[in-house]
Write the structure tokens for this entry.
Amino acid sequence: MTVAAHPEQQVAGGAPATSGRRVLRVLLRDRGAVLSGAYLALIVLMAICAPLITAITGHGPNDFDTAAVDTDLGGVPYGTLGGISAEHPLGVEPQNGRDILARIAYGARVSLIIAASATALTTLLGVVLGMLAGFYQGWVDQVICRVMDFLMAFPALIFMIAILSALPQGNRPVLLVVVISVFGWPYLARVVRGQTLTLVNREFVEAARACGASTGALVFKEILPNLRSSLIVMTTLAVPGYVGTEAGLSFLGVGVTPPTPSWGQMISSSVGWYAVDPMYFVIPGGFLFLTVLSLTVLGDRIRAAYDAGEAA
Amino acid sequence: MMARYVAWPAGVVVILFLVCLFTFVLFFTLQPDPAVMICGKTCTPERIDQIRGVLGLDRPFFTQFFGFLAGIFAGRDYGEGANLVHCPAPCLGYSFQTNQSVMEMVVERLPVSATVAIGAAVLWLLVGIAAGLLSAVKEGTWIDRTAMGLALGGSSIPNYVLALALQYVLVVQLQVLPFPQAVAFSDDPLTWFQSYLMPWIVLATGYACLYARLTRANVIDTLAENFMRTARSKGLPPLLTMRRHALRPALTPIATIFGMDFAGLLGGALITETVFGLNGVGKMAADSIAKNDQPVIMAVTLLAAFFVVVGNVVVDLVYTRLDPRVRITSP
Amino acid sequence: AQGPGGTGATGTSATPATGGIVHVLANADFSHLDPARGFDGGVNNFYRLIYRGLTTFGAGPGEEGTKIVPDLATDTGTPSDDAKTWTFTLKDDIFFEDGTPITSEAVKFGFSRAFDPEAGIGSPYGRLLLDAPKDYKGPYLSGDLDTIETPDDKTVVIHLKKPYADFPSALALPNFTPFPKGTGAGGAFDSKPIASGPYKVASYQRNVSLKLERNPHWKPETDTVRSARPDGFEWTFGLDPATIDERMLAGQGTDADAIGPSIQAATVARVQAPQIKARTLSGLNGCTTYMGLNTTKKYLKDVRVRQAINHAIDKDTIVAALGGSTLAEKGTSIQPPTVAGRVDYDPYPYDVEKAKQLLAEAGLSGGFSLTLDTRAQPKMAAVSVAVQESLKKIGIDVKINNIDASTFYEVIGTPAKQNDMAVTGWCPDWASGATFLPPLFDGRNITAKGNSNIAQINDKAINARIDEIAEMTDVNEANAAYGELDKQIMELAPVVPLAYEKLILVNGANIAGAYQHNSYSGGVDLVSVGLADPTK
Amino acid sequence: MSELLEVEDLTVTFPTTRGPVDVVKNVSFTVGRDETVGIVGESGSGKSMTSLAVMGLLPKGAITSGSIRLDGTELLGRPERELRRLRGDQMSMIFQDPLSSLNPYYTVGLQIEEMYRAHRDRSRKAARKVAIEALAQVGLPDPERRVNHYPHQFSGGQRQRIMIAMALVCRPKLLIADEPTTALDVTVQAQILRLLADLRSQSGTGMVFITHDLAVISSIATRVLVMRRGEQVEYGTAEQIFAEPRHAYTRMLLESIPRIDDEVAP
Amino acid sequence: MTLLRAKDLTKRFVTRGPLGSKAEFTAVDRVSFDVRLGETLAVVGESGSGKSTTARMIAKLMDPTSGTLEFDGEDVTHAKGEALTRFRGNVQVVFQDPFSSLNPRHTVERIINAPLIYQGRTPKGGRRAYAKELMERVGLNPDHSLRYPAQFSGGQAQRIGIARALAVNPKLVICDEAVSALDVSVQAQIIELLRRLQRESGFSYVFIAHDLAVVRQIAQRVAVMSKGRIVELGTTEQVFGDPQDEYTRTLLAAIPRINPEWDRRRRENS
Ligand SMILES: Nc1ncnc2c1ncn2[C@@H]1O[C@H](COP(=O)(O)OP(=O)(O)OP(=O)(O)O)[C@@H](O)[C@H]1O
Ligand SMILES: Nc1ncnc2c1ncn2[C@@H]1O[C@H](COP(=O)(O)OP(=O)(O)OP(=O)(O)O)[C@@H](O)[C@H]1O
Ligand SMILES: [Mg+2]
Ligand SMILES: [Mg+2]
């Protein structure tokens, strides 16, 4: 009895690249992914080079320029589009005439660091604890769920204020990240737990168990990849959420201290001006929107690239 | 598995107790003296002590805490002599700033918050899930891209901005809606509806965006399952195929966050209620924080905690309805 | 003093017709309807609609509003020689809303409520001035206040703790409101007040709305102050400030019959249109926004440092932060322009060089750092940043300590918690230095909690001068003396007067008789306002 | 009159990173009314893809060319809306992997009923009756109770029978059965084959029957298509394929059949 | 030598009706058997008779309601931790539903390597090469190692499952209808592979199948199940040559055969 060594048709081509490199190659060919990546890189670069930017334009993030606004009209910027001019490429803040470009650049530092680290931390906690709860059920689930209930039960903002105002001034951004994460992870963890509950009973998990997978491996290597879609959505949307939380807390006096600029604060302070100086909102809002958009597009494309396997 | 259901009521009570205790500790130890707040501009230390005495703030921590707990079950009295006020059984405390029983304040405001929450929830569920489903089905087309672009935009706009912008456009510029007013449904259904419409939209936007994206992501995953092929092979009406077969598996995460989001909103939609001047629990929370009205803060916290915990219980029960496999005995 | 209010009152000065409902749009509900409890410009203005006292402020724009006139009493009282005992006679035909006459007994009862530990949390003058037994705890706990004599139904004899020439002014404050004996225990007035003024509460839903209707037992003949033209008032509470601005600008429906609070800075540019400008009022709110310099702190102990700070602050940027020239004026002296006897002067003009020189003299030219307590609220934060920017120029590094609005006053009012500097404000209880300078600069008033002398200045000369002025029996003389004391205090530079804030009020098109009242933080005088055409 | 199903030059292509791959190449065959055509062949040779192409249910990204005519009307390029009306009603398919092909979230009863209700009778009661009947027909014990069970509560063979029951409720003109009996023991298999034969004789259903069990093919198919690597190796009457196979692969296949009677494990 | 001994294994399922009514169903009823080292025990029987459930129990993927399980002389009924890890290294399973048992988010390479990864083993030459070799042995194109399960046919998916089970050199492989989706020639190849492994490495198999011809080829002993019980257990010759139980006889009688006339003609032709 003879059997052909390769019953399937032979396909030309060399050895397949490792999946990481393959994915990168796929992404590089994707316009959306490249644009998103470029934008994110630009923002990061801008944050790093903020001092350079202010050196070039000659306006620091807190330099008042009362000459650029009309104090008799409540401080509306002179000129069109919120005072956009060669001097102030993105216009000025109403009332005190601070340069928006400089504030955006410096604000990127605070906002992105806080939002990104809080997102990373909540995701980490949420995924790990949520999966363990969903997987073990029984008392582990009980304990984790009760802790989650406990944390979620507090109206988060009230408690963040209470706790943050009691904490020493110390390193505000770090404290903010910690507090936001402590109150933030249960939201994600619950979603993860719910999905884990339904995935645990899938046959492929049983198969992995038969392969000798330890609990940890089952949870993180078999189930986790199947949660990807929800995770991408939740984490990318967490970023604007946390930028907003930071702004809210800062406004309530427990966030980063003024005059440190942050995107969230800029957006919050722009709201009253929506009718008179809409650009004041549009610029930081636009930067934030594009950041989230880029993160989402990138997340989606990476997922698609992994999913596609060889058939992309 | 059965143990989970049995443990619920006990668990809920324990959580609520801990929330109480923690809130109490936090506000007892960390927060400024509410007596100072009440005392006002020209205030003397003696006067502060006097007020503290009236509020019972001079008593030891546990006396105060258990007094509060006892009030919930047995009611309690405040003040003395002619000033005595009685706060009947489910007593969540008494606000000396508004001179009202907190329970009364909550009961007064809960319907508003519930109206806001329910209306918004209906809206965001319908819009969010429908948009997510549509995007998933039309994945990669302009419909998908537009819907998801909007969803991202929507989730990047703070509630506050959206509320004011909406008001500016719909009320001031286009004049299709009046400025929101506090009217009861029974008095004037049309104005009632018009007044709540904007709060609903504002509140629903953020959630709808999240739900749409989540629905889309999960439905896309489900569409790749073999059983979707079976469903299509049956030649069912497309809406039925989508609703029944593709949506159900995507609903687990939706149900989870919906339980939490909705319960959270019953505890008050702080910003939206404030912007539109709705006298709900959220506005009450905001006011009480600004005025450091501790009994009210305590009550709002407890109320929110109660809804969230109950919401989570419901979600857990829903899981087993959503996915029959969850019912199998776990490993 | 210059006449601050009513600069733009042109379009709305027409006399109101009788009838109609005036609507009021408000952000926050009143603190308390019980006049013993509530005490701020907004609520005091409202109290005048439903309550009457022995005296009250005049009804009119400018200085008229700071004059003291009789109300329930036939005159502004007869003092004894040392101004320690005051006798008042009540008018005839004065009634509470239920028809019971207002008697001397009611006056006594109403006054004694200020001593109740629960109720008497409003204006402090009752407790500060009225003579009472040491452990007296108000009528509900301790019974009648025997130190007030009521020889007959129409006569009240009041004994004070110490001589007080300006007592008629203090009586214009809300916690001297008569009430029928035995009423108002346990916060009852907060939901159901007993009216003595032209209106009574028809319905009140906390944080939602308050409706006033005519009090049939109020006799216009007995009241020379309140014209009370409209048939009622209706407040809508809990509106977002931006929404209020939007509504007032649009003026649709009943909003044409509405008045509101001052607009926000962002709206200023939008009220320039002539048709809106015509119904806009603008004027000072009668308060001073200042920065206290904690004189007990290391660097600020040195008067030269404090003076340097005074010179260094660019008040133009402060004004910009407060919303520009339409919403604020530069502050120079401690007392705001609305206070009687105030002297207009500028001891510390903006001068960076001078400031640097002063610092050099103090041996601090190398720069140092100070912490500034600020209320976490956009406007205050903006002011703080402006201060920070200004002081940067003379080498002072300002650290902003943002404090949650609910705890701000506790922090700065507790010397143990207070930092180097704090941005805050002060409004006089009536237009006299008596309610401005002593509370802020009398070193003997420094308390461990609830302190208002945030500079913590305790200067013998100042203390002594305060006592001297308090003893003056001529009110005008006293006011003039306070004006000079202002200068004396500023020489020590314990505070930096930053600005006098202004209000811009946009009224509904149908509003008539609106002017800003100088004793009520520049708000529209409610007892005179009405509708131009109630049938509209 | 045309045949029930005419497949001509069917090619199915998948784009991959290494260029397009034809998984089905120029396959042609016809199925007459009340005729059974067997498809046999190597695993991975494109049998399932061919049948999915007929149903219009190929995975996303697959490109089809050629022609598929049902009752003389072209199916390829038809809008989804029209195909949907045909599916379940005119043609239905039994899928190869029953567990993943059944929706784990619904009872099997509902999954059978919804098909019937979509095309035949909207009433719930009638559908339920039909579902129970169908389950009984495929030999599932205790069908009244088991309609309310979920797929994971069944054995592999039972799930396969559920798939069969589902495909049959509407008595379609064309039935495509993709390895419908692999998980069944021979007695149940015999029962199912009888059921299919009845269906063919009663309703004139034409059938495409894919299996690896050549004995089954020989007993029910009138024509046989042999596939290998996406290509059509041989196509002819059953008798011709089994008695006079022309292609070496067919012959090899027939030689490899394990025989119950001649070989015993050592 | 006995490798695995099952004694009185019983599994009862509780099912809930639509109205919450409960019903109990005994899927496996006091089943006892043993598997010797290097032996193939076939399990045949009615669909729904409890074969897969028994397989799950002996693979320790499902706890029996009652009964005991011994492996290598050790009672593993309640094995945990170390003992369970050892057991997992020795017993592998090929599942009946090919797609469901493959993680849709893993590449084939990752799936096949799963036992190696989870048991911390690295074969000579690395896992990638090893996976490719295994794919080749079960007749899959090794170039497809980075594809996902959905991109394979039913038979190919089944072979992925087989390759995975063989990756760690287990002592016992439980094959639940492991070759049912394969065409006869590939099937023969797989069977040959299994037999070779048995010869060379002493694998034992529990082989669940419906194709009695295949069973006859591969099994030394056969257990026949019906309605949750083993109705007959004996050597292949015994069971096929001289069936004792009524059900076994029906089963044997129902085996479909190619028209003998066609068969004869073909043989003559070739
Ligand atoms: N999404 C896909 N992308 C690329 N190739 C695919 C895809 N799906 C299936 N294939 C390939 O198409 C070929 C045909 O698959 P098909 O399922 O039709 O085989 P089959 O004949 O049914 O085999 P079996 O008998 O094993 O079920 C297989 O080689 C398979 O690998
Ligand atoms: N989770 C479950 N709940 C209820 N009943 C179940 C469950 N799993 C299996 N059963 C029932 O147990 C019996 C035995 O199932 P099992 O899967 O062991 O059968 P099998 O012998 O493998 O059949 P097949 O050859 O069809 O795969 C079947 O009647 C099945 O319906
Ligand atoms: Mg197939
Ligand atoms: Mg089975």
In short: Residues 1-6 of chain B have pLDDT under 50 and may be disordered.
